[in-house]
Amino acid sequence: MTMTADLPVLTAEQLEIRAMAREFAAGEIRPHAEAWDAARQLPDEIFRKVAELGFMGMRVPEEHGGLGLDLTTTLLTLEALAWGDASVALSVLIHGGPVSTCVLEWGTDAQKGAWLPSMASGETLGAFALTEPEAGSDATSLRAIATPDGEGWTIRGTKSWVTNGSRADLLLVFARTGAPDSGAAGLSAFLVPGDAPGIEVGERERTLGMAASESATLQFQDVRVGAEALLGSEGEGWSVARSALVIGRLMVAAQALGIAEAAYEHALRYGGEREQFGRPLSGFGAVQEKLAGMAIRIAGARALLLQTAARAEGEDPGSALAFPSSLHSAAAMAKVAASEAAMWTSDEAVQIFGGYGYMRDYPVERLMRDAKGTEIYEGTNEVLRWIVARDAIREHAGD
Fold first, then answer.
1. pLDDT above 70: percentage of residues in the chain
2. Catalytic residues
3. How sure is the predictor about 79, in pLDDT bands with cuts at 50, 70 and 90?
4. At a CB cut-off of 8 Å and minimum separation 6, what does 35 contact?
5. What is the reported pLDDT for 319?
6. Quick one: CATH architecture of 127-235?
7. b/e for 22-41, b at 16 or more Cβ within 10 A?
8. pLDDT at 396
9. Fewer CB within 10 Å, N side or C side of the chain?
10. Mean model confidence pLDDT for the chain
11. How far apart are CA 332 and CA 73, in angstroms?
């Protein structure tokens, strides 16, 4: 099975960009993935190389120095990068997904001009600072506060599990500007330079998978920003965050598919090479059943992902602000399907490798560790199932 076997009809440009991303991942990412995982760090050089291809600004319009790619092409590219290494794909998707989407959709002309060109070139790396120690799935209960301070704001609080947090040049920070009990209505969003005085970067988290991707806790100790840092209007923070959810969840689904594809290919290769009882492992029915299950889950998840991406483009090609609830549900389904396909496929790949699969000398154990993260971030699968069920119930009640 190849990456093209179960894809819908794509344009020549989409095929070319996807092939370029896969070639880049094969040559510049995959050979180093094990070393980066062991070192728990991505080198600056890989971001420079990704930027040289334009992949740091895939969704940024050409007028701001980006590629201006459609969503489907972006997802195919992220899948290829994740096939090389999920940590690289995670850093790229956070930067080029939620952060750049919010700046593009909510930013003033001045904010777009100040940030998007450098984000597209890779000079500026973005991070999304929403989650807190006591505010995970229920992000509307966050406790970080931003208080008026002359012509600007002072931000205080703690943000947890911030991907790219220890190296980011731009932080999209969500803080409460309303009363403590104001819920979603009291949240606002701010564009904060990563080197702003008062930001303290804590020790990097030691994660199960995607160890090379830098996840850190950030402390905001009286961080002062000007009025121009406010993204959108005061009190629109939850709307800003929500506008990025569809794009972000589809990007995580693409990342998960890259992990699943890599695990499947390793299992196919090993099953054909490893012999037991006088024949290759892939000659046994039990192993064939596992391989077939992998192929079916990957194909189904990818079809759902690309179908949802096409819907997202068709709903409102120029804006993510108007996405309806049904599209949020579709994105949730795509993320659940792809992440669980990645987890199941990598688990089965470890099983096919047997004792070798349990060793860190072989790549499938890393893929299994990486896959688990995709079931948790950008909305746990349990919360996403609740969203799907809630919307289905509402739709049925309205019939």
1. 96
2. 378
3. very high
4. none
5. 63
6. Beta Barrel (2.40)
7. bebbeebbbebbbebbeebb
8. 85
9. C
10. 93
11. 20
